[in-house]
Amino acid sequence: MKRLTLNVFLLITAIFLVGCNASPDAGHEAVLVMKPLIFGHGGVDSEPIKTGLTFIAPTTTALVVNMQPQQFQVHFDDLMSSDGVPLDFDAVIRVKIVDSVSLIKNFGPQWYENNIEKEFANRVRQAVRKHGMNETAISTVAIDAIDQEVSDAMEKYISGAGLPLKLVQITVGKANPPDSIKSQRIATAAEQQRQLTEQQRKLAEDQRMSAENSRAKADNAYRESMQLSPSQFLQLEQIKMMHDVCGKGGCTFLVGSGGVTPVLDVKK
């Protein structure tokens, strides 16, 4: 029995002498959580371990904390907008830990899941529900307003909860409406484009009609100034057309009882 007790004591002594080590990487800190095996009191060490190698007792746990800005994403499915349209989108929160020891001691390793995630999601829902589908899916003004509202709310919450965090940025992505809404929007855009095309075609036709009317008025004014009858005016126009075509030497004139008739020469 004495030998067994001695062996146990020697084993415990050897474990303490050998010990363990903590070696956080750059941009990280290790927070030591001490758990005495026999004597003393446990707890969180008030000084974090910076970058480098530090030997610690085997019963001490080294929790590595990332001191660089961290990003967490929350996905939302079928979140209703103010006009009752279900939207899908993502929201991102970026935070930076400013005191690793205080964070682990007061909020534990799962500080985000237990203290930030649900509050962040709730704030985003409240902000999005104030805007309609067109605002959140198309207009960047609404997205910017949502970002600002959620940022202000989360900064206030973090400060009030005593979380040793610095809010870096909050980004709410553009909302994605259901496929049925997308199809309706595509159909609406196509109809709008069709109407625009018809308007442009009508405008062109109206302009051509206006030009033809102006030309007809000018021809009629010319006819009246020359004191020609309508039939005489048409004969004059026919002579002009013959002159334009045959003036280049491409006609043969046939003389008959019906008058002179030009025949166009067809070149093979």
Key attributes of the depicted protein:
8 helices, alpha+beta, 268 residues, three-stranded antiparallel beta sheet, rod-shaped, Tetrahydropterin Synthase, Chain A, 3 domains
Please tell me about this protein's structure.
The protein has helices at residues 2-18, 100-107, 111-115, 117-128, 133-137, 140-161, 179-225, 230-246, and strands at residues 20-22, 28-34, 43-44, 54-56, 60-66, 70-80, 86-97, 165-172, 251-256, 259-264. It has 268 residues and is α+β, with helices and mostly antiparallel strands. The chain folds into 3 domains: 15-66; 70-181, 2-Layer Sandwich (Tetrahydropterin Synthase, Chain A); 219-268, no CATH class. The protein has a 3-stranded antiparallel sheet. Helix 4 packs antiparallel against helix 6 (140-161). The longest helix has 47 residues, at 179-225. The termini are far apart.
- Kindly name the structural category: alpha+beta
Q: Helical residue percent?
A: 40-55%
Unreliable stretches: 14-18
Number of DSSP strands? 10
Give the percentage of residues in beta strands.
Answer: 15-25%
Query: Which term fits the overall shape?
Result: rod-shaped
CATH architectural group of the largest domain: 2-Layer Sandwich
Read across the widest sheet, the strand sequence of neighbours is 3-2-5
